[in-house]
Amino acid sequence: VSTQIKARAVSLEEIETVYRERYRPLLRVALMIVGDLEAAEDAVQEAFARAIRHRFEFRGEAGLESWLWRIVINTAKSHHAKPGRSPATDPAETDDRRPDAEAAALRRLLGQLPERQRLVLFLRYYADLDYRRIAEVLTIAPGTVAATLNAAHAKVRQLIEEASE
Amino acid sequence: VSSFDPRVAEVLERAAPSLENAHGNWNAVLELAGVRATDRIEAVAPVIPPAPRRRLVARRRSVIVAVLALCGLLIVLFATPAFGLRDLIVDFIGGRTSVSFVKSEPAPAAIKKRFLDLFTEAPPGMSPHVLPAEARQITFRGAAGQKRILWVAPTRGGGFCSILVGGGGGCVDRQTEQSQGPITIDGAFSQRRGQQPLFREVEGHVFSSKVATLTLEFQDHRSIPIPFVYVTSPIDAGFFLTGVPSDHQQQGHWPSELVARDAQGKLIATKTIRYATPPPNRLPPNRIRILTPKQRVLPTAPPVAPSQPQQEGSADGFHVVVGRNGAVQFTQTGRTSELERLAGHSAGYGCFRLTREFGIFTVRGLSQEGRFAPNVGIQLYGIGAPVDGCEIDGSGGHRWPDALGSHSPVEIALTAKGRAFFADRAAARDLAHFVRSGRMQKIRKESGPQILRDMRATYGPALTHSRIRYRLTVGGITFTETSSTGKTFRVVVVHGRIAHSNVEPYAKVF
Predict the structure, then answer these.
(1) Between residues 48 and 87 of chain A, which touch chain B (CB distance below 8 Å)?
(2) Which residues of A touch B45 (CB under 8 A)?
(3) Cα–Cα 20 to 30 A to B275, which of A139, A152, B102, B179?
(4) A53: nearest CB among B33, B40, B456
(5) Chosen from B32, B38, B477 to mutate, greatest number of chain A CBs within 10 A
(6) What is the pTM of this model?
(7) Is A91's pLDDT higher than 60?
């Protein structure tokens, strides 16, 4: 069996299908990582543009959707790390879609979770991915997903209680 | 997600809204990825893995030539499903692939619209009468095995119009076909200053269904086969576009003749390529006077009077009457400071109709430019009726900020759509003029925070008080401006270049 058979080029149509069918969960997870809707839109857009440019490098080891989730998460993380994400001070920079204060506060609360717990929680809740798929996206063992999700639940409950005291 | 603790689920739900109205923008993704509109179809086609063909050939080395030839044919038929062509191929002989026109997939809407542009904007008597809705997409292989995409549409007169990606395009009528014989050939040179010209590629048509092979012969008596695609009725023509091998690009090795043969190898036609010294590209002195727009006097009335039913409107010191027959009369009725400024300068008088063509928002308009005058008549053709607005555009400006807020000196909306268009276009133009201004072209190449510093230093309060909004993004900056109609225009700059924008067709940004 030739190893060349394994390398499967992904067509634009396949990537487009995932984009159209999974755009909202992708955007929600990106939003939870970057904290700003417009930046999240940019992150998803940039991630899919990257996927298109690198589609010939897709090896098919994980599913296409897992591969795309990984790119979106990495891109969103890099967006979040970029400078210039602090609240705008120039009137020309104001964002009329700024999320409401409560949502922002809850995002800050969830931001206190360790990164892996947050990502597992987001992928499970917003994207409805099963443990196997989450493991593929985050390149961890499926058993680790279950344990991490448990820990994340406990941590969120603790944070809620602390916040309501 | 049923397994979630309700309290945790509630926090997650309230932290990120469900974003029901978010749909994304796939075209923006493609733009950002650098997939050009003309590449998209090519890019969609899956890559053909080279392995099966290599293995097949390797195992059959000792098999007789006839079997190898059969394998060659099978490989072609195997490979073509990648283009969706297996059912379309009528025959494969020598270098010719015959493709069924009627079974080919329709061309994308944007391409149909390009064909429609040929039809609607041509002056009377010069339209090729192309049938854009009938346009098809044909995919075939070029000389080095590379994919080629051809879009072709029949014309009412039995000819066709075509666009070959990476090559040329145009329309051919049956008379032209007959006068040119069974084959045509054209070539493309490139030349750097002080160097000899290089012959880069050849392109042409085949107008005889009997042609099975094309051979390109060179000045050094060598030759290569030229593959071509033959598209069946109603097109009944073949197309080729192929790069000239590097050892035949220098003078003395250039292509000398194209030879067409039938399936039995019988000569059908030859086309000799002649290289003439081009005449100097100079106009003879004192024979042709080229008028500047300012010197051109426009007619005071259209060639025929505006017919009923008429559309009328007034604004900005002008009254306009548009007839059903496309005749338009502009008449000055007042004085404004903008009209004073136009006196003695050139102006464009025009009208437009807003429409959707193959699902694409389109502004069909026509204007005539000449010296500004109080009474001007023009004739519209190819626009259709009723029109949505008329205007007089000045020749000056395009600096940012524009004194008129990027409006034209005279804008007469004749419908509600026309009024919204003027508002949207002003916002789009304002944004485009800002982003493409000479100063911004330099500034936007800077790194993130430096862009902001330079913008503020250069434009100061003008920018703060403008309707333009901006924010840094990865590798660049995004500008937005919202029209009074609520429509938001956006220009995304990445590494100094325009990665995406939605200002067209209202304005151009670069």
Answers:
(1) 48-50, 52-53, 56, 75, 78-79, 82-84
(2) 11
(3) B179
(4) B33
(5) B32
(6) 0.53
(7) no
**B510 and B498 in contact (C-beta within 8 Å)?**
yes
* Cβ–Cβ gap A12/B35 under 8 Å: yes
pLDDT band at A89 (very low <50, low <70, confident <90, very high): very low
Q: How far apart are CA A126 and CA A123, in angstroms?
A: 6
DSSP state of B106: B
The predicted model gives A26-37 an average pLDDT of 90
Establish if A125 touches chain B: CB-CB under 8 angstroms.
Answer: yes
More confident residue, B31 or B271: B271
Chain B residues with CB-CB distance to A123 below 8 A: none
Residues B251, B187: contact at Cβ < 8 Å?
no
Amino acid making up residue B23:
H
ipTM: 0.84
Crossing angle for the helix pair A64-81 and A37-53, to the nearest 10 degrees: 130
B164-180 core/surface letters (b: 16 or more CB in 10 A; e: else): bbebeeebbbeeebeee
Q: Which residues of B touch A72 (CB under 8 A)?
A: none
Q: Chain B within 8 Å of A133 (Cβ-Cβ)? A: no
What token pair was written down for B371?
Answer: 């010296």
Helix (H, G, I), strand (E, B) or coil at B354: strand
Residue B49 is predicted with a pLDDT of: 29
